[in-house]
């Protein structure tokens, strides 16, 4: 088993890191947050030009035909940029759902637009009552002639305000928490009957509450088979988990580096505070947490294509637990060791910490994934 | 009996809009604090930590403890400590009769709002290396330098400040304790936004600020004694057992509403384990503090044990903020400044109790940094108790 990254991956990583350094510095990002509703279109076009929107897509759609490891490399390198763009929603989740669920005609239309930066997607899966359960779906889709009529709510939908199309999980059969009876639909953002309440998350990602009030869809808006969407949902969410784990690794790494630099230069009691043993040991613990997190993100990525879904799920949950714990420790200690400076909005440290905290919640926190891991392990 | 009396008072006097803000972790304005402190003042309960001769309540340490607990459980905002809990005991111990007569009544009535000028950009954990200078000229000191992380400096009337009056003396020697009117020309207050979005702390710059010599507390060059005495008082306050109990009660309320896997969160095994664990930690801290209070009521002065209370108190507070964030799932994510700052319910997203939780978690990371970091507190214990 070779777990070293290839030369090509190194080149890819370098190019993303250069982009973050030169085109996505922290003060520029702050300006985008202050002055725009969501993110800058021109950045998204840059993502497209750099080939990041089609990393994993087959070449027939204009993609690079790469693997999940490519996504991991890019996500980790994008991490320190605290990007505001819908990379996770469009490139990782949306494109995967289209690939596994749409017909050939839709695939070719949607994916080639996506690669060119002309189609932004997002996935509305959570509901006000669902917490992290992907099968807790109350939003209903009722057949009416050759249409479906959607009614209900979706919660904290990232990038819904800029997504051209929103993929929505809906209940087509069974009770609220049944695994069977969930169907995916592709909904135009501006569909009549669909209203939004927009806001930003703690880490500045744009998100919305969605209310569906008799939103009418044609049957062709369905992705995948009727009533049988849950395995597909679990698959793409595991891809999402692997990606945000890699992003978290990139952020932890940036925090570790910044904190190490700080304790080497900040002097108190006549010496750099990094000379004190308590600080040395803390930094070593942070380094170990970062390294284990990196290993787990890689492991989860490699298991994404496992044919046994239980193996994949267990790996994704293990990574989410491990990285959730590591991110909390590294985030909190980075602030602690920066002292008062760590509390300021001016420094990037607090913003890294906020993003890590949001990633911990996204797709389920440590407790949720401990349970999921344990359930998959005993199946 | 006493407990019921306090409870009845809080229920009667606490403005419902302030209670709502405290209950939901929304941001309090200065007027909110003044309103509650005004009610305490009228009742004669503003300064339970003061001797009766200055307007204290004459309560035993245990009664004060009950009082704090009832106020917190009733949703009252904590009294802003800089005046009544921090500078006042120093003025009582080291101040002149004139200083006592002038400042103490104004602190009691909240007429003066105080801030603390201790940390500097290059003097944080190593506070004794502070450089802000006060040079005598005639009947005044001329103050120059920069203070940082100064909570409420932007709305304070007065600052108690550590300044260096003798630059030839090293470290603790040569430091004096000075009271500075924030309206004096030459003072610039620059707000510092913290990463949770709040603007409570500031940088304060002094440029040739003229401070009357009678504003010196204690002897010139003996300011470190004042600071030490104050810090040991601050550390008792920092335990916040009562507030932690209140937050645990809030966590329980939330867990009785939130659902997980088709059940209420309060029935979830992992959640129950964490809740029980933090309650037990808090109990251990509470009984440690009660033991210390019993000793204090027999006339002992607070010593390095207060560092222990600060460390454990802040660790527990911070753990509770983590559990609060976890309790609401995705609804900890939306950042809703209109709700946090203006209390605008119409802008709310998710349950009413959710918007303040993540900002509270973020903001409370400061607890293990302010008032001497927890690393410094451990050094104090190692040195003073363990002699290491």
Q: Please indicate the count of domains of chain A.
A: 3
Helix content of chain A: 40-55%
Largest sheet of chain B: 4 strands, mixed
Q: Strand order, biggest sheet of chain B? A: 1-4-5-8
Instruction: Summarize the helix and strand pattern of chain A as letters.
Output: HHHHHHEEEEEEEEHEEHHHH
Secondary structure tally, helices of chain A: 11
Query: Which regions of chain B have little confidence, pLDDT < 50, spanning 5+ residues?
Result: none
Question: Any key phrases for this structure?
Answer:
heterodimer, A: 379 residues, alpha+beta, Butyryl-Coa Dehydrogenase, subunit A, domain 1, Butyryl-CoA Dehydrogenase, subunit A, domain 2, Butyryl-CoA Dehydrogenase, subunit A, domain 3, 3 domains, 4-stranded mixed beta sheet, 11 helices, 10 strands, 51% helix, 16% strand, B: 388 residues, 4-stranded antiparallel beta sheet, 11 strands, 15% strand, globular
Explain how this protein is built.
Chain A is of the alpha+beta class. Chain A has three domains: 7-119, Acyl-CoA dehydrogenase/oxidase, N-terminal domain (Butyryl-Coa Dehydrogenase, subunit A, domain 1); 122-223, Butyryl-CoA Dehydrogenase, subunit A, domain 2 (Beta Barrel), CATH 2.40.110; 230-378, Butyryl-CoA Dehydrogenase, subunit A, domain 3, CATH 1.20.140.10. In chain A, 51% of the residues lie in helices and 16% in strands. Chain A has eleven helices and ten strands. A four-stranded mixed β-sheet of chain A has the order 1-4-5-8, with helices on one face. In chain A, strands 2-3-7-6 form a four-stranded antiparallel β-sheet, with no helix packed on it. In chain A, helix 1 packs parallel to helix 4 (68-78). Chain B has 388 residues and is an alpha+beta fold. Chain B has three domains: 2-79, no CATH class; 114-223, Butyryl-CoA Dehydrogenase, subunit A, domain 2; 238-384, Butyryl-CoA Dehydrogenase, subunit A, domain 3 (Up-down Bundle), CATH 1.20.140. Helices cover 46% and strands 15% of the residues of chain B. Chain B contains 13 helices and eleven strands. In chain B, the strands form three sheets. Chain B has a four-stranded mixed β-sheet. A four-stranded antiparallel β-sheet of chain B has the order 2-3-7-6, with no helix packed on it. In chain B, strand 6 (187-192) and strand 7 (201-212) form a beta hairpin. Chain B is globular. The model of chain B has no long low-confidence stretch (mean pLDDT 93). At the A-B interface, strand 6, strand 9, helix 9, helix 10 and helix 11 of A face strand 9, helix 10, strand 11, helix 12 and helix 13 of B. Strand 6 of chain A pairs antiparallel with strand 11 of chain B.
